[in-house]
Known about the structure:
mainly alpha; single chain; 5 helices; elongated; about 0% strand; Four Helix Bundle (Hemerythrin (Met), subunit A)
Amino acid sequence: xxxxxxxxxxxxxxxxxxxxxxxxxxxxxxxxxxxxxxxxxxxxxxxxxxxxxxxxxxxxxxxxxxxxxxxxxxxxxxxxxxxxxxxxxxxxxxxxxxxxxxxxxxxxxxxxxxxxxxxxxxxxxxxxxxxxxxxxxxxxxxxxxxxxxxxxxxx
Length: 155
């Protein structure tokens, strides 16, 4: 497995969770569970991705700007999650705000898969792609299965 395939697994999970949340109502146990899962998925993915995908790309002039942009979008998503955490899940405002997060997640994943992956494909060797996938997966699993918050979005 290469780094692109490894990242897409989490991307698919993020899309599925975000879409399922839109189909829930109020402060239901299902919405709570799905939202907790999404927050944890986003935080674990961002931490491992920044270390094992974006960081190596910053070393290359061709991919530095896009890498920095991707990390900035992670920060924007963290802020949206922080704001959602302070709102009542049963309010119509929560759902309206969640739609902003949903849009940002989808936008970020599209950017990554259609622009950044292509740049990375040009600057990384095949060995780097497989090595980075292994490192990313190890770290992602440790964060994903752990109980420790890895961003402010985890509170």
